[in-house]
């Protein structure tokens, strides 16, 4: 009893209360999961009222156990299943289960259908598969509700004709046993009466015929006749037009052809013809064009007809275990194929076309004789399994690692291939390991390595084109996916071609970054949007970019491509193409002509005998300089890149028009140079440094890795450049040229840093350059809190950045975290970022005191790209538009024939800081104004005609400050020259404006060639006759040639004196030219103060103090001009003049009053002045 209770308890856990949705019965069910319980069923089950009972594989010998009553169980039972037991009969009382609709007694030991079953007239689903039934009683006809009858795996020979009374049957399972074989030989006619039949399985019998009445089965969808022995198939079968799936494997061995009726079944989508004797796929099968699954395994296929490829809808094609030696051409038309089984054939190779089957998930090629897989197999992006066991492969295509799904499924099967070492060893470790190895090999064994730069205006379509090239399909970028600064991507169109694509963001703010990545050894792809093109837009879309590339990189290779052709008509495209080529050629011809003209001019000059001594009227700019200039121009002409003579046209939208041609063109271009074999250890070195987690590494660190790789490989560095440094330089330069790393070999400051992962550089730029900065950079309280930054402070800093380019360390930290450019905004990371920005001359650092006064006591840097576009308000006061009469003004002009190179002015502005750091400079987008001692410097960008000029002017009142003017101007020149190194082919002219002409008030002064800046001032010659406008005048030499500081310049005073005299005489002229109406002005602004300064002696301090100049200032003047007394006085007087309110007359009267005071008593002087100036 207690045992029984225990059993009952253990079964109780499987009693499931009826849940909602179980109908209105509300009775529980006993559902024992398969394998969960073995043994007998306790009696109390029969006292329950259950709805469903499932007793699978319990080893029951009888049911009910040991009795004939099943109690209350039948009352509500609708579903009973006792599969996999040892039942041989059912008790009579089972017939009481009148509500039963589903009865499943498969895998028992019944020799006949238990009689009570015939009484269950509500049965809908009867399953007696795999018993030992030998016959079916005619009473089966009573089961009129049957929909599913499963009698598979029994020993039936025939079926009673009464079966056809079960008219509702839809699914009929009559498969024989595998052994002993099923015994039905004649197709049971009764089946043909089941008009509702949808599914019929008669496999593994010995059926020989399909009778004419089979045509009645108009609803039949699936027919399985596997392993029968068909000899006769009635044509009537063609009436079964709903048939979708037929399995005839092994059923046609006695027939020489496929029954013709089959070919009328147009909707057929699955056909299995395995295990027959076909030597070819019957051509009629190829007419069943809706076929999706076709299996012809284990036949004698010797060849395939190309007609097979008419089956465009095929998804599954199994042709394994045949004798195929090749696949016919045209495989690519099976675009929907997902499964292709070709194992155990005699294939020796695969057509490349297979790589077009983009949907393929399974490719079985095991047990063939394939020696090589197609190179482009990586295009099969959907592949999850590739079986190439037992073939003749020696290696696998190097780009296979792109097959991500294959790796994640570990789906590459490569056993039993004569793989060369180390493929074999590594392939045994698994697909992912093999793929990692392939990446490494590609890095080392590439024949061609390139950097490819995609450049062009904003939204030109660069990124979309890159994606189309890399993915082979259209992936247009969305509006909010504009490239942020730049992206680098590795493109490997072929296994031994390695291209690092630099995809530039086209927004103008990102141009600050471009020049860092431009280099002559790259292939430049200039991209533009055809729809935006017009002749007027040529400069912005094409001309400007072409120039930026050509001026910078000698011999740069340039390719031009227009996108968006899907939105243009053919005619439009053609017209634009011609227009662009015309303008490209015209501009290039103009540039060349300019250079050639200049060359001719210099040659003529050089041919003149007098050129030996003098050129252009200026001594010492002689033969040497001219020759140098000539050489430079000739070099410029000869090394100019060839302008593109072709314009490619593509659409990156769906149809990808022109993309594959363009891709082939690029590949051809990239492979057109001879393959370069380089030592393996170069790439081992690269692999090693790429593993270093730091953002950047120093040259020394790189050296450490390099030496250890060399030592491991027993390589001597002597062969490679002599010293380890030279060897490493060679390697780094090479890796830079291929875009793998970034290393600036010829920049003294930057060469100590190796950007082993160029993304670090991109991230640095991203911290600051962002086209939608104002919008994207918003305060977030959480972030603010974690960085201890308050909202009001943040707002102020953001405005300071956007309006004045001032970036504080705190804001930088905020940006780095906000943009997720770093995981930890540690101080060392901030230091690194700031120091790199400074090294790259992207910004300059404010003096601590200035920074504190302006924004913050923290570190502050300033980016010229964000300076205000307005000139400062008090500009006129600091730099009057008209040069005040007594001012010396030294002017240098930097002339570009077109726009200045991108970023030139901004970078110049940064570089000026090298010598203006201690001045309070004022900046705006087009200018810098700085005061240094008593001199003022103005550097301003102007558009002039077609070109751009940067005007560098410096003013001072005192002749002795001319040294400082030169120092300022020469420093600006030096900074500019430094920048020009980046643009070696840039045509730029420097000129010096004749100060003499300026003093004379000429509107179009003489301009001296830039060579004057390179000359030392002629010794002992204090004046020169060199001004075109005044050939007879003597021009102070220090107006034309740079004057050194006193310590380094012999007779410095004499040069200065010549300048002062020149000023004096020009003042005299000015005085003379001024009418009597402005006598007081003549006195104050003309020669008057100068006369006065030379006549005053010790009393000068008293005079100036009484005029209101503070004593400290006088003391300063004394210190500044210890020997030059008149200069000192003059400066004091001018300061008084400019700093005092009142009309000129009032000022003159005030001056004369002081001079006439008793203790000063310069009455005589006053009289003289009154007379001289008519006062
Ligand atoms: N119809 C059409 N649209 C294109 C084509 N190429 C690009 N586009 C669209 O043009 C816009 C700009 O394309 P992108 O590829 O982002 O251009 P980009 O030059 O990379 O732009 P930036 O990174 O901002 O410099 C996107 O909206 C694209 O979807 C094309 O060939 N046809
Ligand atoms: Mg882009």
Account of the 3D structure:
The chain is built from 32 helices and 42 strands. The strands form eight sheets. It has an 18-stranded mixed sheet. A hairpin with a 2-residue loop joins strand 26 (614-615) and strand 27 (618-619). Helix 11 (680-691) packs across helix 12 (699-712) and helix 22 packs across helix 23. The model has no long low-confidence stretch (mean pLDDT 88). The structure holds guanosine-5'-triphosphate and magnesium ion. InterPro entries: DEATH-like_dom_sf, Death_dom, Leu-rich_rpt, Leu-rich_rpt_typical-subtyp, LRR_dom_sf, LRR_domain-containing, LRR_R13L4/SHOC2-like, P-loop_NTPase.
Overall mean pLDDT score? Answer: 88
Determine Rg (CA atoms, Å): 48 Å
What can be said about the biggest beta sheet?
A: 18 strands, mixed
Based on DSSP secondary structure assignment, what is the total number of beta strands? 42
What are the bound molecules?
A: guanosine-5'-triphosphate, magnesium ion
Percentage of helical residues? 25-40%
**What sort of overall outline do the alpha carbons produce when their principal axes are compared?**
elongated
Strand-residue proportion: 5-15%
**N- and C-termini, Cα separation:** 144 Å
Number of continuous helical runs: 32
Keywords: Leucine-rich repeat, Nucleotide-binding, Repeat
Protein name: Malignant fibrous histiocytoma-amplified sequence 1
GO molecular function, one term: nucleotide binding
Domain Roc: 443-637
């Amino acid at each position: 009893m207690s045992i029984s209770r225990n059993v009952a308890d253990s079964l109780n856990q499987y009693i499931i209360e009826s849940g909602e949705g179980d109908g209105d019965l509300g009775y529980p069910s006993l559902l024992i999961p398969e394998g969960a319980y073995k043994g007998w069923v306790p009696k109390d089950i029969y006292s329950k009222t259950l709805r469903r009972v499932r007793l699978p594989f319990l080893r029951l010998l009888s049911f009910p156990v040991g009795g004939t009553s099943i109690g209350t169980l039948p009352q509500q039972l609708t579903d009973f299943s006792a599969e996999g037991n040892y039942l041989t009969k059912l008790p009579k009382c089972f017939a009481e289960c009148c509500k039963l609709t589903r009865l499943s007694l498969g895998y028992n030991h019944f020799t006949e259908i238990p009689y009570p079953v015939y009484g269950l007239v509500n049965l809908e689903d009867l399953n007696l598969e795999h018993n030992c039934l030998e016959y079916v009683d005619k009473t089966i006809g009573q089961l009129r509700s049957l929909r599913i009858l499963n009698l598979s795996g029994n020993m039936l020979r025939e079926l009673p004709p009464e079966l056809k009374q079960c008219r509702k049957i839809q699914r009929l399972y009559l498969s024989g046993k595998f052994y002993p074989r099923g015994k039905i030989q004649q197709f049971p006619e009764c089946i043909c009466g089941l008009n509702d039949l949808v599914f019929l399985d008669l496999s593994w019998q010995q059926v020989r015929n399909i009778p004419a009445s089979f045509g009645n089965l108009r609803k039949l969808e699936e027919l399985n006749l596997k392993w029968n022995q068909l000899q006769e198939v009635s044509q009537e079968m063609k009436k079964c037009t709903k048939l979708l799936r037929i399995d005839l494997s092994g059923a046609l061995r006695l027939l020489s052809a496929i029954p013709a009726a089959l070919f009328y079944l147009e909707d057929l989508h699955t056909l299995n013809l395995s295990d027959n004797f076909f030597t070819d796929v019957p051509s009629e099968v190829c007419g069943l064009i809706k076929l999706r699954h076709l299996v012809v395994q284990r036949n004698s296929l010797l060849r395939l007809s190309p007609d097979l490829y008419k089956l465009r809808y095929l998804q599954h094609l199994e042709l394994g275990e045949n004798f195929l030696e090749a696949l016919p051409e045209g495989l690519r038309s099976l675009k929907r194929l997902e499964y292709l089984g070709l194992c155990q054939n005699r294939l020796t190779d695969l057509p490349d076309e297979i790589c077009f089957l983009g949907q393929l998930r399974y490719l079985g090629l095991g047990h063939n004789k394939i020696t090589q897989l197609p190179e482009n197999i990586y295009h099969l992006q959907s592949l999850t399994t590739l079986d190439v066991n037992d073939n003749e492969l020696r290696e696998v295509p190097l780009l296979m690692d792109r097959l991500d799904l294959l790796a994640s499924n570990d789906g590459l099967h490569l056993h039993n291939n004569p793989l060369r070492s180390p493929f074999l060893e590594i392939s045994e470790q698994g697909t992912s390991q093999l793929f990692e190895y392939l990446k490494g090999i590609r890095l080392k064994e590439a024949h061609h390595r390139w950097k490819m730069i995609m450049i062009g205006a904003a939204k030109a379509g660069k990124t979309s084109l890159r994606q189309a090239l890399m993915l082979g399909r259209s992936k247009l970028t969305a509006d909010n996916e504009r490239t942020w600064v730049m992206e680098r991507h590795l493109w490997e169109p072929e296994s031994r071609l390695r291209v690092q694509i630099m995809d530039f963001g086209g927004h103008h703010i990102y141009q600050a970054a471009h020049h860092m990545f431009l280099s002559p050894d790259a292939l430049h792809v200039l991209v533009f949007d055809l729809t935006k093109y017009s002749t007027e837009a040529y400069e912005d879309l094409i001309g400007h970019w072409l120039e930026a590339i050509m001026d910078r990189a000698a011999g740069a290779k340039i390719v031009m491509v227009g996108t968006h052709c899907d939105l243009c008509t053919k005619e439009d495209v053609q017209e634009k193409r011609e227009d662009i080529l015309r303008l490209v050629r015209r501009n290039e011809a103009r540039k060349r002509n300019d250079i050639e003209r200049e060359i001719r001019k210099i040659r003529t000059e050089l041919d003149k005998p007098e050129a030996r001594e003098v050129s252009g009227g200026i001594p010492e700019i002689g033969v040497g300089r001219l020759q140098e200039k000539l050489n430079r121009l000739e070099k410029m002409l000869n090394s100019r890149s060839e302008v593109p003579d072709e314009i490619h046209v593509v659409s990156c939208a769906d149809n990808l028009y022109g993309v594959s041609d363009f891709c082939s063109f690029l590949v051809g271009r990239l492979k057109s140079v001879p393959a370069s074999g380089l030592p393996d250890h170069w790439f081992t070195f690269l692999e090693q440094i790429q593993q270093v987690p730091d953002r950047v590494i120093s040259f020394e660190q790189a050296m450490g890795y390099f030496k250890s790789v060399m030592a491991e490989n027993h390589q001597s560095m002597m062969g490679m450049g002599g010293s380890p440094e030279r060897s490493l330089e060679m390697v780094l330069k090479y890796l830079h040229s291929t875009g793998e790393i970034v290393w600036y070999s010829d920049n003294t400051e930057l060469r100590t840093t190796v950007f082993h992962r160029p993304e670090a550089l991109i991230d640095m730029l991203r911290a600051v350059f962002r086209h939608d900065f104002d919008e994207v950079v918003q305060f977030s309280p959480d972030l603010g809190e974690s960085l201890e930054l308050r909202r009001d402070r943040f707002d102020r800093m953001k405005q300071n950045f956007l309006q004045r380019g001032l970036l504080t360390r705190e804001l930088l930290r905020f940006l780095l975290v906000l943009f997720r450019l770093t995981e930890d905004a540690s101080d060392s990371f901030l230091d690194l970022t700031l120091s790199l920005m400074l090294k790259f001359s992207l910004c300059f650092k404010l003096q601590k005191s200035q920074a504190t006064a302006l924004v913050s006591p923290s570190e502050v840097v300033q980016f010229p790209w964000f300076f205000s576009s307005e000139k400062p308000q008090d500009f006129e006061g600091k730099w009057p538009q008209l040069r005040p009469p007594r001012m010396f003004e030294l002017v240098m002009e930097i002339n570009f024939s077109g726009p200045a190179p991108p970023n030139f002015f901004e970078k110049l502005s940064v570089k000026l800081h090298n010598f203006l750091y201690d001045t309070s400079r004022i900046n705006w987008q087009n200018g810098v104004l700085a005061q240094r001692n008593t001199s003022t410097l103005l550097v301003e960008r102007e558009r002039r005609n077609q070109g751009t000029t940067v005007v560098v002017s410096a003013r001072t009142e005192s002749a002795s400050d001319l040294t400082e003017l030169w120092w300022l101007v020469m420093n600006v020149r030096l900074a500019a020259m430094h920048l020009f190194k980046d643009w070696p082919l840039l045509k730029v002219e420097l000129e010096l404006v004749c100060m003499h002409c300026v003093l004379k008030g000429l509107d179009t002064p003489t301009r001296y060639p830039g060579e004057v800046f390179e000359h030392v001032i002629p010794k002992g010659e204090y004046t020169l006759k060199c001004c075109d406008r005044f050939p007879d005048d003597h021009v102070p030499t220090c107006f034309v040639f740079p004057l050194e500081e006193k310590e380094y310049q012999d007779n410095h005073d004499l040069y200065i004196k010549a300048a002062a005299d020149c000023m004096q005489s020009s003042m005299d002229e000015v005085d003379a030219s001024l009418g009597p109406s402005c006598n007081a002005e003549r006195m104050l602004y003309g020669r008057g103060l100068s006369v006065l300064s030379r006549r005053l002696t010790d009393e000068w301090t008293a005079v100036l103090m009484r005029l209101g100049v503070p004593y400290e200032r006088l003391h300063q003047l004394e210190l500044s001009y210890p020997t030059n007394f008149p200069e000192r006085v003059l400066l004091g007087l001018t300061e008084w003049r400019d700093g005092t309110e009142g009309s000129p007359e009032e000022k003159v009267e005030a001056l004369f009053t002081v001079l006439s005071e008793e203790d000063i008593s310069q009455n005589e002087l006053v009289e003289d002045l009154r007379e001289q100036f008519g006062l």
